[in-house]
């Protein structure tokens, strides 16, 4: 592999190229992050995933970190020029880029994680998640823990995809507390996925109306809800990575999105020679999870749910039913 060429190119683009593997393998996987990884646990999980895939399938791996929107396209082209067999892209930020680039690089396979695009070329693959399964578990916990019989959920924008969080949560609540009410609100506005001020306002309003447990799925707005929880008298659920250490005594549980597992499984499908594969991962496949389901890590998680063994037992029982198929959940994204 042309290591020095890539290193110089990365330096010129103002991005970080991280290489693992002491000797050259006959395959190269490249992970392109949408933003600088830094302390972002979600993007760090992507780096872990590409490294695990390299070990699993005997490939060299590299990570290109994007610092700007322009870097994303430049990094994808750099990966192609480096001769990557598979380029892994995390997030919706790459949807337009992969449509533009993939047809010009038919010998390169592209994997989009946590997103997909319509009318894909044969060399574009997707790994998506069944978020509603883990959201349902958050609802089960909320329904069992609420003292006011009122709980809430705030989403970024009223679109079908985000109903996987809001509807999944509401259904979980009703399964154990049919007399409870679920207050559903949306951030909206000009920047719904990055507006902590509006997200906080919605959480404060729900709490004032009686909700003592609130699930937040507002992307960049989540920290506004966390701030409201610190100042208010309610507890929260969140998404993707463990935020419990940041909110001791306030964060109940998390819908964990295991992009690392998704990468390894989806890359395995691609290596079989299949065209435009689609991997859908939920609890069964290890793509979605909850802190309560982690028997080894729960005690040290600092999540409130660890203090409620009866809730943990119920969540694990419900998860087992979803995994074995005895409890079938409708996907809210396609129910609208």
What's the layout of helices and strands?
Layout: H1 3-13, E1 16-20, E2 28-33, H2 41-57, E3 60-65, H3 69-82, E4 86-90, H4 95-101, E5 109-113, E6 124-129, H5 131-145, E7 150-155, H6 163-176, E8 181-186, H7 196-208, E9 213-217, H8 222-231, E10 235-240, E11 251-257, H9 259-271, E12 278-281, E13 288-290, H10 309-324
Parallel strand pairs: 2-3, 2-4, 4-5, 5-6, 6-12, 7-8, 7-9, 9-10, 10-11
Antiparallel strand pairs: 1-3, 11-13
Helix pairs in contact: 1-3, 2-9, 5-6, 5-10, 7-8
Keywords:
alpha/beta; single chain; globular; 6-stranded mixed beta sheet; disordered N terminus; about 325 residues; Rossmann fold; 7-stranded mixed beta sheet
Provide an overview of this structure.
This protein has 2 domains: 3-129, Rossmann fold (3-Layer(aba) Sandwich); 131-256 and 288-334, Rossmann fold (3-Layer(aba) Sandwich). 39% of the residues lie in helices and 21% in strands. The protein has 10 helices and 13 strands. The protein has a 7-stranded mixed beta sheet, sandwiched between helices. The chain has a 6-stranded mixed beta sheet with strand order 8-7-9-10-11-13, sandwiched between helices. It starts with a helix and ends in a 12-residue tail after the last helix. 51% of the residues are buried.
Give the total of beta strands. 13
Order of helices and strands: HEEHEHEHEEHEHEHEHEEHEEH
CATH topology of the largest domain: Rossmann fold
Q: Tell me the count of domains.
A: 2
The level-1 CATH class of the largest domain: Alpha Beta
Overall morphology: globular
């Amino acid at each position: 592999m042309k290591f020095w060429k890539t290193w110089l190119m990365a330096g010129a683009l103002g991005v970080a190229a991280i290489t693992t593997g002491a000797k050259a393998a006959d395959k190269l996987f490249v992970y392109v992050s949408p933003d600088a990884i830094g302390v972002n646990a979600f993007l760090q999980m992507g780096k872990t995933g590409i490294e695990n895939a390299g070990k699993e399938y005997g490939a060299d791996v590299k990570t290109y970190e994007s610092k700007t929107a322009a870097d994303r396209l430049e990094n994808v082209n750099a990966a192609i020029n480096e001769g990557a067999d598979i380029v892994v892209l995390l997030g919706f930020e790459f949807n337009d880029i992969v449509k533009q680039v993939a047809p010009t690089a038919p010998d390169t396979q592209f994997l989009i994680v946590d997103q997909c695009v319509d009318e894909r070329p044969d060399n574009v693959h997707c790994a998506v998640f069944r978020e509603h399964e883990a959201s349902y578990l958050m609802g089960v916990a909320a329904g069992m823990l609420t003292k006011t019989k009122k709980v809430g959920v705030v989403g970024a924008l009223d679109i079908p995809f985000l109903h996987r969080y809001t509807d999944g949560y509401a259904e979980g609540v009703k399964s154990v507390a049919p007399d409870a009410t679920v207050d559903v609100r949306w951030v909206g506005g000009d920047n719904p996925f990055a507006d902590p001020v509006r997200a906080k306002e919605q959480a404060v309003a729900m709490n004032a109306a009686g909700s003592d447990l609130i699930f937040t799925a507002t992307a960049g707005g989540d920290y506004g809800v966390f701030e409201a929880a610190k100042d208010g008298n309610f507890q929260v659920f969140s998404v993707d990575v463990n935020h419990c250490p940041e909110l001791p005594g306030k964060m109940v549980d998390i819908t964990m999105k295991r992009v690392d597992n998704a990468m390894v499984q989806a890359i395995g499908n691609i290596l079989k020679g299949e065209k435009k594969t689609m991997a859908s991962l939920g609890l069964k496949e290890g793509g979605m999870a909850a802190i309560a389901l982690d028997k080894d890590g729960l005690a040290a998680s600092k999540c409130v749910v660890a203090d409620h063994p009866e809730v943990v037992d119920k969540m694990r029982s419900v998860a087992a039913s979803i995994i074995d198929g005895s409890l079938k959940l409708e996907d809210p994204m396609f129910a609208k």
